[in-house]
Amino acid sequence: MAKLTWYGHAAFLLESGQYKILFDPFITGNPLTPVTPEEIPATHILVSHGHGDHLGDTVAIAKRTKATVIGPYELAGYCESKGCNIHAMHIGGGHNFPFGRVKLTIAHHGAGYEEDGKVLYLGNPCGYVVNVEGKNLYHSGDTALFMDMQLIGQMHPLEVALLPIGDNFTMGPEDALKAVEFLKPKTVVPMHYGTWDIIKQDPKAFASRVKGSKVVILEPGGSLEF
Asked: Residue 203's closest CA among 195, 194, 211, 212?
């Protein structure tokens, strides 16, 4: 049984046996999160793109825990330059890790990171299909709706899909409903909403309109098992 915990925004911790797989650890500056970067365990960190609210505390957590940072080539290289252990990948590629298989999917978004007054190019944004204990979890990253979500669901039958509903920067509720229709996951967890007023949404209203999939609305710090 794997355990998934939400830390607000797009930050999740996936626990499977001895492995602690952290996604997009935006903790410092995240008004929703109930934890600090120093509290979070990690053996691997998956980063979807280079925006500060997703790269977040990756470098500090990776250096403290010795976790391996997994991400698109350019983003992984940036983390390596900061002293992190990395495994670079790119969109469409998959790799078998000790905890299971990871495949990178497309995501339609941006990926610039602001540092010292400059914007650094950190490669294409991505999503992740992670297979643990024989089950597939999809973390879409920040993305617009796209037709190839149908292929993701067909090729990787999904136990859980983590989908943004915040709108403005990502899919909103209407497009997320269509994404559920395309992906056909058993369970949907809405994310990337409520962090700031500009992405404020009612997850219960979204859940009431979803058909064919169970919706689990997590509170920050809340978990589900699958």
From this structure: 194
Q: How many CA atoms lie within 13 A of 165 on its CB side?
A: 27
Domain spans in the chain, listed from the N-terminal domain onward: 3-219
Summarised one tens digit per residue, pLDDT across range 154-210 is: 999 999 999 999 999 999 999 999 999 999 999 999 999 999 999 999 999 999 999
**Which pLDDT does position 183 carry in this prediction?**
98
What does the H/E/C string look like for the chain? CCEEEECCCCCEEEEECCEEEEECCCCCCCCCCCCCHHHCCCCEEECCCCCHHHHCCHHHHHHHHCCEEEEEHHHHHHHHHCCCEEEEECCCCEEEECCEEEEEEECCCCCEEEECCEEEECCCCEEEEEEECCEEEEECCCCCCCCCHHHHHHHCCEEEEEEECCCCCCCCHHHHHHHHHHHCCCEEEEECCCCCHHHCCCHHHHHHHCCCCEECCCCCCCEEEC
Is domain 3-219 in CATH 1.10.3370.10, yes or no?
Answer: no
> What's the CA gap between 137 and 46, in Å, rounded?
13
Which amino acid is present at 80? E
Give the span between the Cα atoms of 86 and 81, in whole angstroms: 10
pTM equals: 0.97
